[in-house]
Amino acid sequence: MLSLSGIGKRFGGLTALDGISFEVGKGAITGIIGPNGAGKTTLFNVATGIYPPSCGAVVFGGKDISKLPPEGRARLGLVRTFQNIELFGKMTVLENVMVGLHTQSGSGLFACSFRMPWQMREERRIRERALELLEFVGIPELADVQAGTLSFGKGRLLEIARAMALEPKLLLMDEPAAGLNSGETADLGDLIKRIRDLGVTVALVEHDMDLVMDICDHLVVLNLGTMLAQGTPREIQDNPAVITAYLGEE
Amino acid sequence: MRSDRIKFIVFALVVLLLPLPLSGGYLTNVLIFVGINGVLALGLNLLLGYAGQISLGQAAFFGLGAYGSGVLTTQFGFNPWVAMVVVALSVAVFAFALGFPVLRLKGHYLAMATLGVGVIANIAFNETVDLTGGPSGLSGIPNLAIGTLTFDSDLKNYYLVWCFALGMILLSLNLVNSRFGRALRAIHDSEVAARVMGVNARLMKVQVFTLSAVMSAIMGSLYCHVMTFISPTSFGFSFSVEILTMVVIGGLGSVYGSILGALLLTLLPEMLRTFQDYDIIVYGLLLVTMTIYMPGGLVEGIPALFRLIMPTKKGTEVGNA
């Protein structure tokens, strides 16, 4: 599905990523873990086109997308959520999801200003679909609330609904459980599994090990910008190099 | 949706009936400029209040519209309506091409670049004396006409300008409550998130920049035919700032706010005649006070003020009404 080969990223003298190569398998949930500063978020930013890589290639669905801007990658079905929740705070919850449906609709400047009949039909379709997505994540009652006023947990759900609006092939989630309480985290785990069951491949960066071990089929461990190990959750738990990176040497 | 429609119809009726008690007097003349300035502010508000991109060169597009129509009709014998369309299309092409490099910039840099465009345009109006008449202005511009109906009085021009203005207000209202408008607001709130949602932020910014330029140009064309005389001083940097002030005072991200801001800032100079040259101080004070106490502009500030003055509104309102 997504294949990273030899990805490197330098910020001035700092090497954030160095020769990262791995594949995200189709239909599975892949977890990317590692201590703080391992380069996990940077890797997501490179994969989604927020930063260009210093070297290496990002291949998605058999196509080299290294030079594609974020909006181009989104149109191909590579969608992400953010660690600190990037909602459109001044818009309503429903409108946020409707922006997510941008690529699923096509009315331009003229059709919108003149309220062409097909634009009105499209608008109704977008609105209905957005409501369905809010129901999918379980917050339909918040449709008309301003997104900036949501709690962190609800904001996270909205962000997932908005990402799902793009009908992603691969959903990259940057620390989806950050800031959630244990009940919310459990619900999130179920939601991610439901997303996988819809046929969406999921890759997530996460610190909550209970969640990671519960839902992930495959794990990739980063440390200080390099790849330390990859394998099933069980293999990773027993890997001495991983234990050293997390707990330090004796 | 429905209440939006009713609001617009009420607004349109007020606009269309307003001149009747005024019987074509001086105030009608001032209200023509409220219409023109209102659309200029609205164009900038789409760019600044919705998409979050500043422009300090709006007067340049207004001037291009005015001089385009003025020169084509007086020097080349164009029909004024044809000239208006030709000018609007030319400005669209110009703004679209200009938008790509300029809108790569953000914040202060974008302000400086658009300011530069405004200054260059103003120099061009002054220096191309053969075409524009230079600093002494361009006169003898014909009035607009439909058949035998010539728009030569304040009352006729009022309806001419406000028909255009109402049309543009309606189209803008449609636009901001659509897929396009949502994408603009999304870019304003978080450009990164908007792009990750598949919004082509760069193209949309250029499109709305072009739209605001074309709206300004059409108003420029109307302005030159209403005035029949234009000179470069009307299209300088200070007028760009004045348009910006209208937007901020009226309310960023509000279509009606733009009109309200234009109304206040067009009527105010008339009321401030007694202050003469010191009126700029009043402007400054107004802008500072507004941004501190009414950051949402008049559209949010006036209702808030009412609530402040009448805290027991719910109890007394029935009796007063």
Give an overview of the whole structure.
Chain A is α/β, with parallel strands linked by helices and about 250 residues long. Helices cover about 40% and strands about 25% of the residues of chain A. Chain A has one domain (about 1-245): Rossmann fold. Chain A has helices at about 40-45, 70-75, 95-100, 110-115, 115-135, 150-165, 180-195, 210-215, 235, 240-245, and strands at about 1-10, 15-25, 30-35, 55-60, 65, 80, 170-175, 200-205, 220-225, 225-230. In chain A, helix 3 runs parallel beside helix 6. Chain A is globular. Chain A starts with a strand and ends with a helix. Chain B has about 325 residues and is mainly alpha-helical. Chain B has one domain. Chain B has helices spanning about 1-15, 20, 25-50, 60-75, 80-100, 105-125, 130, 155-175, 180-190, 190-195, 200-225, 235-250, 255-270, 280-295, 300-310, 315-320, and strands at about 140, 145, 150, 230. The longest helix of chain B is centred in the middle third of the chain and has 27 residues, at about 200-225. The interface of A and B includes residues 105, 112 and 115 of A.
Give the strand order, joined by hyphens, for the main sheet of chain A: 6-7-8-3-9-10
Sheet with the most strands, sense and barrel status of chain B: 2 strands, antiparallel
Total discrete domains of chain B: 1
Reading off the top of the CATH hierarchy, the class of chain A is best stated as Alpha Beta
Q: What percent strand of chain A? A: 15-25%
Largest sheet of chain A: 6 strands, mixed
Coarse shape of chain A: globular
The greatest inter-chain interface is formed by: A-B, 37 and 29 residues
Query: Over the alpha carbons, how many angstroms does the gyration radius of chain A reach?
Result: 19 Å
Mean pLDDT of chain A: 93
How many beta-strand elements of chain A? 10
> Could you name the CATH topology of chain A?
Rossmann fold
The neighbouring-strand order within the major sheet of chain B is 1-4
* Mean pLDDT across residues of chain B: 91
Annotated CATH architecture of chain A: 3-Layer(aba) Sandwich
**Global morphology of chain B:** globular
Write the H/E string of chain A, N to C: EEEHEEHEHHHHEHEHEEHH
What's the total helix number of chain A?
A: 10
Task: Note poorly predicted spans of chain B.
Answer: 313-321
